[in-house]
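Obj.: predict assembly geometry.
Materials: sequence records (below).
Method: joint structure prediction, all chains together.
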Amino acid sequence: MIEMLVHLLVIAGLIASALLVYWFRDLLAATLSAGIFSFLISLEFYILQAPDVAISQAAIGAGLTTAIFIVAIRATNRYEGGGS
Amino acid sequence: MRMSKLVRTGADLLYPFALIFGLYIILHGHLTPGGGFQGGAVVATGAAIVIVAWAYEDVAGMIRKVTMKAQESAGLLLFIGTAALALGLGYAFFTNVLANSGSLFGLSVPFGPNPGELNTAGVIPIMNIAVGIEVWGGLTVILLYLLSGLKKEEGS
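Observations (raw structure tokens):
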């Protein structure tokens, strides 16, 4: 029962953060939202008893990909639509 | 161009902990979840935090491209050298010659439920260390090249 509840919470968080990535016009906020998505999916991997995959996902998805996106945003505009 | 003081101080504080946690995952690769790739990725994430928070000129003295490239090559050479060591001793390629030998990483696995003996498993920890330093160097050099290209674009 409690496991089902945790699953539902994590999946709701996944859907919410994925929708927020689409919703934000501030690209830095969208990047952080994608990082939260990666962190939640690594939590889901851990709950499903795959700690190996969870460590990979947390390091690559939540850490390195977010860092690469932030470096890319530094080189271009922070807000969607250009102009700035 | 660097980030605010809050971000920079946080990155400096987090860096040693990420480093030690990644090295722990690499060294305990044959006992606990994770291994060379996962530990190397965690260490590279620690380096990525510092790289993102500071400007390239500040980071270039501490995390150097040449060191990271040498580290990547050294990891690959250590991996293939360990595999070829068995070939030189008259066994098949990738044979675990060090297991149960009593020398480096050569103890037998204890019987029954136990917390895990670090000094076991033969060449597997050595290959974990090789993959770990290779992934560390490779993933860090990607970010360093990204950031150095950024500096050039802003300068022109």
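Conclusions so far: The two ends of chain B are 15 Å apart (CA to CA).
To do: check interface contacts against the pulldown list.
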